[in-house]
Amino acid sequence: MLIVMKNNASAEQIHTVVGVVKEMGYDATPIPGGQRTAIGIIGNDGGISSDRLAGLEGVLELIPVTHPYKQVSREWQSENTVVSLPNGTKIGGSDLVLMAGPCSVENEREILDIAHRVKDVGATVLRGGAFKPRSSPYSFQGLGLQGLEFLARAREETGLAVVTEALDPDGVDLVVKYADIVQIGARNMQNYALLRRVGRAGKPVLLKRGISATIDELLLAAEYILAEGNPDVILCERGIRSFDTHTRNLFDLAAIPVVKSLSHLPIIADPSHGTGIRSKVTPMGRAAVAAGADGLIVEVHPNPPKAMSDGAQSLYPDQFTKLVDEVKVIARAIGRNFNPTLQ
Ligand code: PEP
Ligand code: MN
To answer: Most CB contacts within 10 A, which of 38, 126, 197, 307?
Structure first.
């Protein structure tokens, strides 16, 4: 439930309402807004007797939150959440944000090279896995700490922010030291211990949709992170498992506008994992931007046939340049900016 206060409600009235909610055995979070303050009630599984609350001084109306998730919902917060990174990138506002880089960090020279190339065409965030969640235990598992060090070096040289994955709760502290955004991969979307841990990490989180997750399950996973006190969650549509074998995953384009209406959190699209096929990444990247995605995360490799993971879906740098040129036009046509200026 949300308690909306009148726009002239005093601090004392807000304080009294919070006190009454707590007396009733729930938690209350005041949410200051541009016009008026709302107070969110957490901890109730079912209905709350609203008579007592409706009669308090300064209360305008009571709005039941109709979804199982609360803090991530648009009812809870109508304005978009904008996640700010130290290099000036803002995700969820009017800018279209581009994140790009290899699936895995493979060596220093290559990550530096690709970082410069994607930056030159307008990416502001460098992606690259140092800890890789692989379907087979015999596949390349990532360079670990050394990979994180190479990413940090690339950030120093280019000013790009870094997004990289944490695989388990014990690994979060190390990743947080090096990353600007901690990625939670599709396979871990419902790893609640990990979600709680990144909820306390003090860094933005990129939460990728689970391989068979519904949109509500994605939003509930994000709720775990917000419930621990971290508001900076970026959602990511990366395709879901389907019966068709022509693409690696079924890229759920409609999830983008659906999430936008249900939640105030930013959502970006990953057409690389979403399709698994290089030639399909650009059309789906264009479509995702047209559908309202706040950004794209794209796998780009200097020599995809030699990539240690996900080469088949990695773009050549020139293909990424072309994709950026095209999505710039689409972004502008729907009123978004594309102005990367790194601090
Ligand atoms: C990745 O980003 O390289 C990755 C493993 O993604 P996902 O978790 O979406 O499969
Ligand atoms: Mn990958």
So the answer is: 126
